Q: What sequence folds into this?
């Protein structure tokens, strides 16, 4: 694991919260750390070279862009997990895919266009991969999503450099949204990719779009206001950053306590994600939490503490032990539609015409 000095640790905390929507964002970040713009740029380049920082890009809300998405639990035959995962990874809508210690030994996320059938995609993937069973685990309620790894063990917050980052929940998703325009789609496609590390990283995007950076910032602020965009941020590679215990806590919460327990979990800083998901005869857990820790023992202790505080005794922790795929989902590229066509899946809008 690469050693990261304190200044870069502080910088990573800030970048996970937000890369500011200004012409010289690294200058702004440098002012918070008493570092020059040039030094910040050099540090960011080094963090990317060392694979600590995966990329810098705009984080959009999948559902608000008209896509369907789901976590998926998959049971691969004994000794066949790698082969099954390889087939699953070929689907362009699969962005995250992990092996976890459970009978359901592969867990992946998938997104498809709004007029597609998620179940049809699952049926096809099961047939192609030879998986024994596949369970869709869509989000029934989003209590929290705010992925942030504290690289400083609380030092940045104590120093007044860092504050709790933004939390995204169903509250931001609510409300009517205007139809996506051609301009919206062009901007999403330009902003969703890894940004160039330079003093003015938004300038190449503006040039590509044939507009000004101020117009881009105004569009971004509007997309944030209506809940389609979360922020521009640095995306971490948690394993390279030392957070090797990726613990998915799953909880069997009584229906009448789901709101109470979910809201409580959403206030806990170590929890980066919290969702309500469906149950099945072979899967009783309805509330999912994600915790990233440097050690399995500390993750275990923390979830045991949450169990004691909430009184929810029926829970389990599924640790990932292999990362098969982790990318940012790219929207409006046509790749998912091409996959559908290749495998004979017809979107409902076409089927009904």
A:
């Amino acid at each position: 694991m690469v050693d990261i000095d304190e200044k870069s640790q502080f910088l990573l905390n800030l970048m996970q919260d937000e890369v500011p929507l200004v012409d010289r964002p690294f200058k702004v970040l440098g002012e918070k750390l008493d570092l020059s713009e040039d030094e910040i740029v050099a540090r960011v380049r080094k963090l990317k070279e060392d694979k600590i920082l995966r990329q810098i890009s705009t984080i959009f809300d999948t559902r608000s862009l008209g896509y369907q998405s789901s976590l998926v639990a998959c049971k691969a035959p004994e000794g066949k997990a790698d082969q099954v995962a390889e087939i699953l990874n070929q689907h362009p809508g699969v962005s995250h895919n992990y092996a976890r210690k459970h009978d359901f030994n592969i867990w992946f996320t998938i997104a498809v266009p709004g007029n597609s059938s998620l179940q049809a995609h699952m049926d096809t993937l099961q047939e192609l991969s030879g998986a024994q069973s596949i369970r869709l685990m869509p989000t029934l309620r989003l209590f929290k999503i705010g992925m942030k790894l504290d690289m400083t063990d609380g030092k940045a917050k104590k120093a007044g450099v860092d504050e709790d980052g933004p939390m995204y929940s169903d509250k931001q998703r609510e409300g009517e949204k205007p139809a996506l325009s051609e301009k919206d789609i062009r901007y999403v496609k330009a902003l969703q990719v890894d940004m160039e590390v330079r003093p003015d990283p938004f300038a190449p995007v503006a040039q590509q779009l044939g507009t000004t950076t101020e117009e881009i910032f105004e569009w971004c602020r509007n997309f944030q206001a209506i809940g389609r965009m979360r922020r521009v941020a640095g995306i971490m590679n948690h394993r390279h950053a030392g957070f090797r215990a990726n613990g998915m806590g799953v909880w069997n919460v009584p229906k009448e306590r789901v709101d109470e327990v979910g809201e409580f979990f959403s206030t806990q800083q170590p929890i980066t994600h919290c969702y309500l998901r469906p149950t099945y005869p072979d899967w009783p857990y309805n509330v999912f939490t994600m915790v990233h820790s440097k050690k399995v023992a500390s993750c275990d202790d923390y979830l045991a503490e949450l169990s004691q505080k909430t009184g929810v005794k029926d829970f389990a922790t599924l640790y990932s032990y292999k990362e098969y795929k982790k990318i940012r989902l790219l929207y409006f590229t046509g790749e998912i539609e091409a996959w559908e066509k290749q495998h004979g899946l017809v979107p409902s809008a076409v089927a009904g015409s």
The two ends are 55 Å apart (CA to CA). The CA atoms of residues 251 and 315 lie 4 Å apart.
